[in-house]
Amino acid sequence: MDHISRVGVFVAVVEAGGFAGAARALGITSSAVSKQVQNLEQDLKVKLLNRTTRSVTVTEEGALYYDRAARALQDLREAEELALELKSRPKGPLRVSLPQSFGIKYLSAPLAEFAARYPEVELDVSLNERFVDLAGEGVDLAVRIGALADTSLIARRMAGCPFVLCASADYLAEHGTPDRPEDLADHNVLAFTGNAALHEWRYIDAAGRAGQISLRAGFRTDSGDMLCSAALRGVGIVILPVFYVADHLETGALRPILTGYATAPQRDIFAVFPPSRFQSTRLRLLVEHLVATCRDLPWER
Fold this sequence. Notes:
The protein is α+β, with helices and mostly antiparallel strands. 41% of the residues lie in helices and 22% in strands.
């Protein structure tokens, strides 16, 4: 077995948590796995694993070596894909994480189109509102809304995501329409409890001046869909990303207010994925497909 193959055996041991699991994954015996790791340690003149009768653990040197070796092997696998020119027929698994409401409403059809176009790509799509650790959870691509905090990821902007203040015609007829941000103090502004800055609104006016106002809320939830539903029923004014309310603004069920002010900071919708010198063809094609799709979002036209 050559040196690179031995590296692959070592990586399999670390990922499986032991020789037996690695042996099952590789289709060889546990003794063969142990022997190849020993040979690798002799090649490197470094102890990579601590072995006892009960467990196998990674040494400090082994952990450092694993981190780089696993990435190098992934690069090799992706380089093989490029060398085999899989551009015309991409295949293999893709794990995708989407924000639930935006994903269901605007990405369900594009993902179905992608799956139909590339049937050998195995899409595994997860819908949730939590922050996903791409590397830790083995996710290939995530769609995120807002400012990007993790600079280690590659990001492609898909679309803008302005926030809209709006309310139903019935609510505005009963309580009046605010003309200035300060007028919101006299209104029930429905609160999203996932917002760390509960409960205030930060804005920029048409002249570029920043402001901030505290709000009161008689209705709070961590669901944007529920906030939208409450606004439609005249419960109060809502401040939501445009994708929650775009259809209702178009039909007139919700009416925009304070349109001369923009919520700060500006938010965008991004496709994010871990960096790699060799981006797999299936991932590249999916990112391009989603970016192209988002050019036709109602607020991007």
